[in-house]
């Protein structure tokens, strides 16, 4: 879910920002660089402080909910789409997805079979491949949605993200007591 949502945000940013805000390539680059600059500070805060105060399953559920909030705020529905709406919702999605990635890997390392912790086909490779498949599906979604036109691209690509995010939250709630 997180790789899909992040790929949608990052890959379509140049098209969305040029359509809605007339941003140049350099403006998009600055926006993406600012998102990238949040990775290390967020991981330090989560790794040093938040993970010591909360269980991983609590952080997992909270991060998924915050990703959902970011996705919902990203939709262009009734009011004119604005730069603050796009930037803030993108920042919320990106930062919470980064938190989610760390928590997912932490939980995976605890529940992974010992057979998957050695050899070539290990848990890390499987996790990387799952993320790659999610990015490919997200890129295909953007490509297919592009045939509907730029005006519909944002909402059409966010709908699967919304569905996947809600499904992930429901799955987390269903298995919450088995997560440790």
From TrEMBL:
GO biological process, one term: transmembrane phosphate ion transport from cytosol to vacuole
Endpoints of the signal sequence: none
Membrane disposition: Multi-pass membrane protein
Chief location bin: membrane
Gene Ontology terms: cellular component: plant-type vacuole membrane
Transmembrane feature ranges: 20-47, 59-79, 85-108, 153-176
Tagged with keyword Nucleus: no
Keyword terms: Membrane, Transmembrane, Transmembrane helix
Location within or outside the cell: Membrane
InterPro entries: MFS_Domain-Containing_Protein
Domain of life: Eukaryota
Listed PANTHER family: INNER MEMBRANE TRANSPORT PROTEIN YAJR (PTHR23510), SPX DOMAIN-CONTAINING PROTEIN (PTHR23510:SF75)
Protein name: SPX domain-containing protein
